[in-house]
Specification:
Homodimer. Heterotetramer of two MnmE and two MnmG subunits. InterPro entries: G_TrmE, GTP-bd, GTP-bd_TrmE_N, GTPase_MnmE, MnmE_dom2, MnmE_helical, P-loop_NTPase, Small_GTP-bd. This is tRNA modification GTPase MnmE. Its EC number is 3.6.-.-. Helices cover 46% and strands 18% of the residues. The protein is built from 14 helices and 13 strands. It has 3 domains: 114 residues, Probable tRNA modification gtpase trme, domain 1 (Gyrase A, domain 2); 132 residues, Four Helix Bundle (Hemerythrin (Met), subunit A), CATH 1.20.120.430; 157 residues, 3-Layer(aba) Sandwich (Rossmann fold). The chain has a 7-stranded mixed beta sheet, sandwiched between helices. With 447 residues, the protein is an alpha/beta fold. Helix 10 links the parallel strand 10 and strand 11. Helix 4 runs antiparallel to helix 5 and helix 12 runs antiparallel to helix 13. Bound molecules: guanosine-5'-triphosphate, potassium ion (K) and magnesium ion. Magnesium ion (MG) binds next to helix 8.
Length: 447
């Protein structure tokens, strides 16, 4: 699949720097490079070049490197123009390239072409964006492993195993008159068990990969005035959130990222939960509940003034999140900092105002972040990969049921086909334009 148009973009970040690069990809590149250089460039050779506009007026001096198709990042003809990192000069250089027949690239369009030309699969392309966006060393290492194909290889191995099982079942359906009933063979049950285990292990690694990538999502909720914003400020050691003694002070969702042991932790402060009359506050409460659904860790802050209301809030916490129940303002009662693990979650007694007991909470968060601590070989992943693996797990379960409960071989084979499809969505063997559009739109321009 090769594109008919040629794309161009400034590939270096905006601002002034030592070097800036204009990248161009597509069929017009050989002609365009020849015009810029004044002769045919040699492949992968750094030519010193005087870049000039149509009238011959110099734009900058720099290097021109031609990567002929298919040995380039995109798999197409690519030329890189390395100039000085002057935004004005780079814009002029880009304008010159556009004048010569290229068009402005959309965000992620180079990577999209690399994917469409089979230079890398979809999970690898996503890893490029994740590497660029990595906020910690752990996440950068993990993204690099995904870019190297560590994650994709495991998905492929699982796909292969799925296909083997499917072929077995389809063969058994096609030859029902065989002496042996292949659908009841112990080897088949063994194959299912192995596949199930392989999938579960990949799902666990992928979930950790998402956490490495996105960090831990910690959402702070509670009644108005419980001290949620005070707690965010104390943890982040900033005066990020407004704190007043007026209930309903926080109305929007506030985020602050902190780093614990190389894992990024996103702290989210939310509007106090209550029956609000005010429309703005109601909207804040709605957003707070939405945030809660995405939480890895939910911190329910209370000041023990209305324990009935807190009990109601406790039942509203999502089952998927780890619960920490913070009893704030111990300075008012002179109680000592404490930690107790109870049936409904881990309880902590502290004071956001004086900082007493705050270390207990930090230790708790460190422990939770540490669970995501990457063993050697961890790769980065995205929520969409987890969703695909979960769909694969459902299909696998259905296939096994179809076979053991109803001996419905055709149904089982169909479910395994669904499973294979779900796995193929991760690496991009099966995609929709819509999905590709969404993925690459989040990339930077020039990548
Ligand atoms: N004594 C004492 N007061 C505290 C403590 N933490 C917060 N407060 C006070 O409690 C009041 C409310 O604090 P906020 O942090 O604004 O509470 P909130 O939960 O964010 O409130 P809303 O945003 O209105 O829902 C303020 O007057 C704080 O100074 C604490 O540990 N001890
Ligand atoms: K308040
Ligand atoms: Mg607040």
């Amino acid at each position: 699949m090769s594109s008919t148009d040629t794309i161009a973009a400034i590939a270096t970040p905006p601002g002034n720097g030592g070097i800036g690069i204009v990248r161009v990809s597509g069929p017009q590149v050989p002609r365009l490079a020849q015009v810029l250089l004044g002769r045919r460039p040699r492949a992968r050779h750094a030519h010193l070049c005087r870049f000039a506009d149509a009238a011959g007026e110099p734009i900058d001096h720099g290097l021109l490197i031609h990567f002929p198709a298919p040995h380039s990042f995109t798999g197409e003809h690519v030329v890189e123009l390395q100039a000085h990192g002057s935004p004005v000069a780079l814009r002029r250089l880009l304008a010159r390239v556009v004048e010569l027949g290229a068009r402005h690239a959309r965000p992620g369009e180079f990577s999209e072409r690399a994917f469409l030309n089979g230079r890398l699969d979809l999970a690898q392309a996503e890893a490029i964006a994740d590497l660029i966006a990595a906020g910690s060393e752990a996440s950068a290492r993990a993204a690099m492993r995904s870019l190297d194909g560590v994650f994709s290889q495991q998905v492929h191995a699982l796909t292969e195993a799925t296909i083997r099982l499917r072929v077995w079942i389809e063969a058994a359906i096609d030859f029902p008159e065989e002496e042996i009933d292949f659908l009841a063979a112990p080897a088949l049950a063994g194959g299912f068990a192995q596949l199930r285990q392989q999938l579960a292990s990949l799902l666990a690694d992928t979930r950790r990969g998402v956490r490495l990538n996105d960090g831990l999502h910690v959402v702070i909720v509670g009644r108005p005035n419980a001290g949620k914003s005070s707690l965010l400020n104390a943890l982040a050691a900033t005066e990020r959130a407004i704190v007043t003694d007026i209930p309903g002070t926080t109305r929007d969702v506030l985020r602050e990222t902190i780093d614990i042991d190389g894992i990024a932790l996103t702290l989210v402060d939310t509007a106090g939960l209550r029956e609000a009359e005010d429309r703005v506050e109601q909207e804040g409460i709605r957003r707070a509940r939405l945030e809660l659904q995405r939480a890895d860790v939910a911190i329910l802050v209370s000041d023990d003034d209305d324990t009935d209301a807190d009990r109601v809030l406790l039942t509203g916490l999502p089952a998927t999140a780890t619960r920490l129940l913070v009893h704030n303002k111990i300075d008012r009662t002179a109680a000592a900092p404490d930690r107790q693990v109870r049936a409904d979650g881990t309880h902590l007694w502290l004071s956001a105002r004086t900082g007493a007991g705050l270390a207990l909470l930090v230790a708790e968060l460190t422990r939770l972040a540490g669970q995501g601590e990457a063993p050697a070989g961890s790769f980065s992943a995205r929520a969409r990969h987890v969703a695909a693996l979960e769909r694969a797990a459902l299909a696998l379960e259905a296939a096994e049921h179809a076979l053991t409960d109803a001996r419905a071989g055709e149904l089982a084979a169909e479910e395994l086909r669904q499973m294979q499809h779900a796995l193929g969505e991760i690496t991009g063997e099966f995609t929709s334009e819509d999905l590709l559009g969404r993925i690459f739109a989040d990339f930077c321009i020039g990548k």
